[in-house]
Amino acid sequence: MNPGRLALLLPPLVALSACGLFQGDGATRIAFRLESEAGQLRDSGVAAHTFSYVPKGGYDDCSGAYDVQFSERGGLVVWCKDAQSKTVSSHITTYHLNFVQVPRTWNVEKKAGEAMRVELTRQGDAVVVTDVR
């Protein structure tokens, strides 16, 4: 696809994501949440904020157990598991790096329905992921 055509498609996709009509895969959903939470942290004036995330399930999101990796200055990966802990799908994005910095790698393993907690901290003008559990 040529860059001009892509530029025309991006505003509608951003609008759809803001309305919740385009949810994306598990990694993209977390990235959208990081975008929102980082913006709220910047606007709030507080130094740090922790939020919880639980996959909603469905076609492109984890319905069972899941593992998440925040890679140092790299991709955000989600592995969805079945009842036998076998990976049934995986998703990756770097979209979140537009809004947060990830200074180290975190790996978390969660049971079905279990919340992942992410701590964000303001450091100057940056919002940094400072803990994932």
Strand order of the largest sheet: 4-3-2-5
Q: What is the count of helical runs? A: 2
SSE string, helices as H and strands as E: HHEEEEEEE
State the major sheet: 4 strands, antiparallel
Q: For the terminal residues, how far apart are their CA atoms?
A: 39 Å
- Unreliable spans are 12-21
Tell me what portion of residues adopts beta-strand conformation.
25-35%
Number of strands: 7
Write the layout of secondary structure elements.
Blueprint: H1 3-19, H2 26-44, E1 48-53, E2 66-70, E3 76-81, E4 87-93, E5 106-110, E6 116-123, E7 126-132
Antiparallel strand pairs: 1-6, 2-3, 2-5, 3-4, 6-7
Write up this protein.
The chain is an alpha+beta fold. It contains two helices and seven strands. The chain has a four-stranded antiparallel beta sheet, with helices on one face. A three-stranded antiparallel beta sheet has the order 1-6-7, with helices on one face. A hairpin with a 5-residue loop joins strand 2 and strand 3. The longest helix is centred in the first third of the chain and has 19 residues. It is elongated. It starts with a helix and ends with a strand. About 8% of the residues have low confidence.
Please outline what is shown here.
By secondary structure, the protein is an alpha+beta fold. The chain is 27% helix and 33% strand.
Descriptive keywords:
four-stranded antiparallel β-sheet, three-stranded antiparallel β-sheet, 2 helices, 133 residues, alpha+beta, elongated
